[in-house]
Structures are given as C-alpha cells and as structure tokens.
Amino acid sequence: MKWMIRVDMEGVTGVVNMKQVVPGAADYEFGRGMLMHDLLAVLDGLLQSPDDEVVLYDIHFFGTNVDLHKLDSRVTAICGKPHYTPGNRSYLDESFDGMILLGLHARAEMPGSLLNHNYEHDIRTMSINGVVVGEIGLEALMAGEAGVPLVMVTADSEGAKETAELLPGTITVSVKQSLGDTAAACLPPARTAALLKEGALQCAAAASRLQPYRFDGPIVLEMQFKPGELLNRLQSRLTDCFDGPHRLILRGASVLEVWEQYLIAKTE
C-alpha cells in the first residue's frame, strides 16, 4: 500500500512547549528525537510488505526536521515545505491509499488545548465554506481534493478530540492528555510506541471504508488575524480581499486554489 504522512511536531510524545519544537531552541533536539520516535513507530505499523511505500511531507517550521538516516528505504521525504498548489494537488494523487497526520494539535483558541494554533500563531480562526477548521481539517480537505482519505491522526488529547468530531471514523492516537497551553500528562515513549504502531496497523482496513473529505466548489476561505506583521503584509498584498481590519476572505474553485493564494501573499 502507499501512504502519505504529514509530519508536525507539537503533538508528538512528550512535547509541551515551543522550546522543544523551534529549530535552534534550547530543547529542540529533544522534540526532534520524539518526532522520530513517533514516526518510526508508525512506519513500523505501515510497512508490512516489501511493496509498501510511504511519502513524508514535513509541515513543521522549515520542513527540515526529519532525520533521513533513520528512514526505511521504502520511505521518501519531501523537505523544505514546497507550496501546495492545484497543479501538484498537495503532492497526492489516486495512487495513495490514505494520509496520516502525525504530531498534530488542536486548532487555535481551543481552551485548555496544548500548543494550539493554525499554522501561524497570528491566525485566530479559519473556516472553509462556513465550517471552522484548523490544520487537521484543512489538511484533510486538501487531501480529499486529490481523492485521498485521512485515515489516522496522532496528537494530544484535544487534537484527537477535534479529529473525532470533524471526521468520525478516522483513527486517532493520543500520546498525551492536554492540561493547558503548555502542560500535559505525557505517556512514556515505550507506551506511545505501542499505541502508534497499533493505530498504524489498523490503517489498511480504515482506508477501505473511509471516504475523502471534500467540499464541492466554489470555496470560500475566511481567516481572522491578530494584529501584527503578518496581517500588515497581507493587507498590503490582498487589499481587496479584506472585510474589515482583520478578516480575510479568499475565493476560488478549490481549497488548494484559495490556500495557494494565501501562501503566495504570505511569502512573496
């Protein structure tokens, strides 16, 4: 079987603060080690035959967090965070059996949820066609447009809860119980490794019953921003797309199209 794993970091085993997930920060190597621990446990469950294949896409910070030396030869890693576009369909196509989101977290402004945010910490809320989403929902929608279902999410307890509410039937593995913005009751790696492998072993059956998550176009993406440099940049580049000082509205034929509009304005 062929799988896509999107790799984030805030929702991996033992991570509870930004010093553990920001490249170059004091405890980043701990966080990176836990990322690889969780990833290798999931790969152990997914790679059950010589023909199995995994493509990783590193969505955390600069997209350079995965230790390539530790990967099985059946794994390819997309590093450096190249933009998702309608042309590349977020690097997914019909050859993939399913997508896994590893190390995710709850959407921004969810009370009591660990390290919650929406990609940038300046994004307060996001919605697609009126449905409030965070990173889990948006990634699932973009995969859905390529015909690929989201089969598993590994996260803290609140990220797992968000997944279950938005996408019933998707496998969830919680590696820690959220106790607030920067605190959690963490399971030790020996326990989370077993849970993650067990979840991965269920993915083949889940992929056969789950449908891609998608909305018919046209698509409307609404985003609310905190004051700051990102908002100022977007206001200068997408002036006609603002409704009020903090509310950005982007329209297009697909989720990937509207998200590409945001990515281009954010970075160029």
UniProtKB/TrEMBL annotation:
InterPro entries: DppA_N (IPR027476), Peptidase_M55 (IPR007035), Peptidase_M55_sf (IPR036177)
Alphabetical list of SUPFAM superfamilies matching this protein: Dipeptide transport protein
Regions annotated as coiled coil: none
A Pfam match: Peptidase_M55
Stated name of the protein: Aminopeptidase
Phylogenetic placement of the source organism: Bacteria, Bacillati, Bacillota, Bacilli, Bacillales
